[in-house]
Amino acid sequence: MSDFAELTLEGKSLQLPVVTGSENEKAIDINALRAQTGYITLDSGYKNTGATTSAITYLDGEQGILRYRGYPIEQLAERSNFIEVAFLLIYGHLPSQAELDNFSYQIKMHSLVNEDMRKILDGFPSAAHPMGILSSLVSSLTAFYPDSLHPNPTKEEVDLTIIRLISKLSTIAAWAHKNSQGHPKNYPDNSLDYCSNFLYMMFAYPTEKYQVNPVVVDALNKLLILHADHEQNCSTSTVRLVGSSHASLYSSVSAGINALWGPLHGGANQAVIEMLEAIKADGGDSKKYIEKAKDKNDPFRLMGFGHRVYKNFDPRATIIKKTADDVLGALGINDPVLNIAKELEQAALTDPYFVERKLYPNVDFYSGIIYRAIGIPTEMFTVMFALGRLPGWIAQWKEMREQKEPIGRPRQIYTGETTRDYTPINER
Ligand code: SDX
User: Is 307 known to be catalytic?
Assistant: First the structure.
């Protein structure tokens, strides 16, 4: 097979190099296109455009494959834990015991946030959406750690910023929840592991001793692992683009949090539960809502269904669906919206509209049912997605800087007015 693509334009022929990845994915390298032809390519939503090369995550949308640094997510979800997977994504290998102990210790030692950040948090009304609090407070970390603003940080500076961000995001997220409840905030308990400590900060009250439930800790580890990275999705591409201007990791991740917030992206997990609740309140007729989702004149979409890349099942949804059954069974919870979700899935998977468009449940379809079962309020669901995706954002930002990528600056095709002269207002 040729290593070049032949392009003929205006009678001239151009050979463009073909790039082949380690999983035999192919791309046409068009770096020379504009200089040699004056042409650019156009690809709304970047559906056919690769922005970079990356060694972090591999996914195959047709086969339903997802691997972090070569390890299948099914194995990591079953046998690893979130902090170990975070190390794997960021540093490229599974840590030795000594590396993992040090990484975990560093994260524990940085879990406190500056008390002045509480003043910022206290300024938010209790009705503030926690994603807005999260992106604001992550951005405010630049004020408390100005060394993070160095445009060309040393490895040690990057490693410290990474530790601070992983550690403090957990505290900030739990405090955003307590802020919405009007309840006292819990300080981190360094005797607990990452997930247990997060649950403690989320659900402990001064009036009673909080008991960590191992079933819930296991489910949370699985959920965070399954959300940890997903190659060049909208929010990760945002983090890489912002970081390409040599903005700090905090600024880049704050931008990623805002991109994730959209209901077509990470905000879908909140939208799924709101949709299921609405269907339940409307009598639970899933077939009625399948028809609404198919009706082009109806703005209703089946949230949690469909994916830009997965044109087969989303492997994460498969694991999360089973985890939902396990957790609700272990906790003795019978949640009617889980049954509605399963009915919707079954109806959609046999309906030509969904089958022809290859629309399957995605990562967001079942995750909210588990979050609900462990007591996390709906508005915190996308915060949970951000908590899980943080190591992926960090790994991708780090790779982009290490690859010395140029500042991202896409081109356009102009379709506005051609040149015209200014006219004084009394002549218009
Ligand atoms: C995430 O990119 C990632 O990796 C993201 C993510 C990650 O880990 O980072 O996986 C996380 O964001 C998952 C997706 C969560 N979003 C939702 O669940 C929202 C509902 N889904 C859709 O809005 C949609 O499926 C997208 C946004 C996910 C994908 O949209 P695309 O690829 O741009 O596809 P499209 O909108 O062009 O849809 C193609 C067709 C259209 O019909 P036709 O014009 O061909 O007739 O499918 C239809 C769409 O109308 N369609 C749906 C549908 N999703 C697509 N119809 C009804 N319900 C849906 N959910």
Answer: yes
